[in-house]
Design goal:
about 0% strand, about 90% helix, about 140 residues, mainly alpha, extended, single chain
Length: about 140
């Protein structure tokens, strides 16, 4: 009986943690592109020690990227809400566009950042990519 109570309490604790994490994600999704860009630029300034001119240029680049990405996400959500699924060709096209956008972003940032800053940015991107891959692996094993 005591073990059962402990298991129920543990289950409730895990559930409340998941709900809290989902709430945080949904609040991030409610931000405007300008707010997201401002946070990205500030984080990049901390990580890469950007000067004022670089901050302005990076803000312009990141804002355009963020607006474009959010528009695509909204279109995908609208399609999902209608109950439509993405075809294999559409998925291929989206992935291809995503990679093109990454290439474009990298080339634009290369024109603004110094060599050292670019190396730091690329290292941070790799770290983030590996973290996302780990999350996907964990989610796949739990489902």
């Amino acid at each position: 009986m005591i073990l059962m109570k402990k298991l129920i309490l543990l289950g409730l604790a895990v559930l409340s943690l998941q709900l809290t994490a989902q709430e945080k994600r949904s609040e991030l999704q409610k931000m405007t592109p300008e707010q997201k860009t401002a946070l990205q630029v500030k984080q990049m300034t901390l990580d890469l020690d950007l000067n004022a001119e670089q901050q302005k240029k990076v803000a312009t680049i990141m804002e355009a990227q963020t607006k474009e990405r959010m528009a695509k996400i909204d279109a995908l959500k609208a399609k999902k809400d209608k109950g439509e699924k993405i075809s294999a060709d559409e998925r291929y096209q989206l992935m291809n566009e995503h990679l093109d956008n990454q290439i474009e972003l990298k080339s634009k940032l290369k024109s603004v950042l110094t060599e050292e800053q670019m190396q730091k940015w690329e290292a941070k991107q790799e770290k983030m990519k590996s973290r996302m891959a780990n999350r996907k692996r964990k989610a796949a094993t739990t489902n």
